[in-house]
Amino acid sequence: MNYKASQTLILNNVSRFIDLTELEKQKYISLLTEVKVEKKDFLMQAGEIAKYEYFITKGCLKVYTLDEDGAPHISMFAIEDYWTGDLSSFMTKEPSRYYIKATEHSELLGISRENYDLLFREIPKFERFYRILYQKSLISYIRRSNYGISLTAEERYLEFKKKYPQIVNRITQKDLAAYIGITPEFMSKIITKVNRM
Amino acid sequence: MNYKASQTLILNNVSRFIDLTELEKQKYISLLTEVKVEKKDFLMQAGEIAKYEYFITKGCLKVYTLDEDGAPHISMFAIEDYWTGDLSSFMTKEPSRYYIKATEHSELLGISRENYDLLFREIPKFERFYRILYQKSLISYIRRSNYGISLTAEERYLEFKKKYPQIVNRITQKDLAAYIGITPEFMSKIITKVNRM
DNA sequence: TAAAAGTCTTAAACTAGTTCATTTTTTTTC
DNA sequence: GAAAAAAAATGAACTAGTTTAAGACTTTTA
Known about the structure:
2 copies of one chain form a homodimer.
Chain A: H1 5-14, H2 22-30, E1 32-37, E2 42-44, E3 52-58, E4 60-66, E5 72-79, E6 83-84, H3 87-92, E7 99-102, E8 106-112, H4 113-122, H5 125-144, H6 147-150, H7 153-163, H8 165-168, H9 173-180, H10 184-196
Antiparallel strand pairs in A: 1-8, 2-7, 3-6, 3-8, 4-5, 4-7
Helix pairs in contact in A: 9-10
Chain A binds a DNA duplex (30 and 30 nucleotides) through residues 152-154, 172-174, 182-189, 191-192.
């Protein structure tokens, strides 16, 4: 069958861990919803229940919370070929504490909670897909959970630049500061210093 | 069949997410290895390849790395009914950066990498078990990955005390400092301050 | 294309957390 | 159960990162 570019992208992503028959591919695609968001628009806001988990086929989004003082803390930037959403709210059906906002025009494929549950019943192989996907995410979050605690801000910045060179140039310095966990002023100092070296 | 207390504990843990037949239970138990470690002994050291993932049936252990200055950074405390190990090294078969040391006499059930792979072939339901287990761990690590960045040391301490009251009294203040990401001196100050309030 | 809004830079005064040194208290070991 | 070792407390001097404020630069919008 003939798939759109976005559908081919998600099928390739899935085929990293499991093999699907042509019929299974079609079934899977039929369970997904296309979503588009313009720059600065929200995919989701705090207080809502996360209805979907998303695969990004184009663009860039930031996932963040606001603290009591209204200051944003960015927990991830998501670009093409990445998954995003609020897994906690998606699973528990409790209101989310997260905002997801597009930093560029973005296109996504979403799977609803009903279709996610259905997927495991219709194509049990997807248990394996998600087992491996979550395992890999878990490994990177376990590593990351100590960064804020054991590295200086400058080290965290250098790590980020090294690990996500494709992202650094697509986001503002201010958003990067909110991800690194420092003020925009101190981010500016770090960048000036690092460039001087 | 009659199971040991430790075996009953792990079967109950597994049955939170999947149902096993009597035969499957016996098969699963047969794939596990019993391990005991005395206080201050290592379950694993940096440089080794993580041969097992462990379920703790008794005791308490700390999982940590050493930084360039030789200072420890504890990434988790593991007690009864928890899973531990270095998932990254276990999966990639690359040398681990972690030490796992018993802070009390501890007893564990380990599954080797060969048996872990075999398990999915023999009882595919375990894909579901690990999918859900990793999903839940992922949710808590996603939440935690921002703590070091967005909370003060005092807030992190209060969070830990609230979330793991059973653990606080079993570990030293020094180890807690290495987990919170501060010096033992500052940990002491925080505790004095919090107790005064 | 001009005005408005947002982003980045610089600098001075401040605060959370570190470092180093010493003493007291608790735990371990023989 | 005494001696040794480790953990905890306290305090003074220090540093990484914050706050506030103001000006320069860049992007968005009408």
